[in-house]
Design goal:
With 213 residues, the chain is mainly α. Helices cover 74% and strands 5% of the residues. It has nine helices and four strands, in the order H-H-H-E-H-E-H-H-E-H-H-E-H. The protein is globular and about 55 Å long.
């Protein structure tokens, strides 16, 4: 118990330090999302190191997951003001966030020549749109990361974890549209699903390593 208390104290200190050092480019809400993602990702390995009994780890993972869900809902639904809901054009954020020197497929053909060479032909058009894409990906990384430790059948299934993220994102976007608390954006669903897939790859890998150690 003392180890857990000490761990939580150190994490709270780390949160304060991160919030102080995050650049002013991000708003307070953006900073909160970054902190939520960072803490969820570092907390689970810390718990695995402190607790060696699997039932305790699963119980702690459930608590962390519940905290994440509350944080996610506060950003996407609970903390939103009522507005005139509408569906925005698909891929609008991508078009605003980035522009390419060549077409999409021509740019993809450059990948065999090296990532650096390809990135030289991709530019940021709108930092606001790019930040929104980035944060929507980040927001769902903890979901995919934690699911393998919370639901047994998903321990080694990146696809199943990603599917859950996709469905949750669809439900969120529908709720925002239905209750006039946001915009229905296909871009957000794509970004959330991508974030969940990235988290699932990390989570399934960590779960496999921990269970074989």
């Amino acid at each position: 118990m003392d180890k857990i208390s000490d761990l939580l104290y150190r994490i709270s200190e780390l949160i304060s330090e991160i919030k102080y050092r995050i650049p002013s480019l991000f708003s307070e809400e953006d900073k909160s999302i970054l902190i939520l993602v960072f803490v969820m990702i570092i907390m689970l390995p810390a718990v695995l190191c402190v607790l060696h009994k699997k039932p305790l780890v699963r119980g702690t993972a459930l608590i962390i997951f519940a905290l994440y869900i509350l944080g996610n809902l506060s950003f996407t639904i609970l903390g939103r003001e009522v507005i005139n809901a509408q569906q925005l054009p698909a891929f609008g954020n991508y078009r605003n966030a980035f522009y390419l020197d060549y077409g999409l497929f021509d740019t993809l053909r450059m990948l065999p020549q090296g990532i650096r060479n390809t990135m030289d032909h991709i530019h940021i058009g709108s930092y606001t749109a790019a930040r929104e894409v980035f944060l929507n990906i980040l927001l769902y990384i903890p979901m995919g990361y934690l699911l393998p430790f919370v639901i047994k059948p998903m321990r080694y299934s990146v696809l199943a974890c990603t599917a859950v993220g996709f469905l949750c994102s669809c439900a969120t976007e529908y709720a925002q549209l239905r209750y006039s608390i946001g915009y229905f954006q296909i871009d957000d669903i794509i970004n959330n699903t991508l974030g969940c897939m990235i988290g699932a790859i990390l989570g399934c890998t960590l779960s496999r390593l921990w269970r074989t150690s």
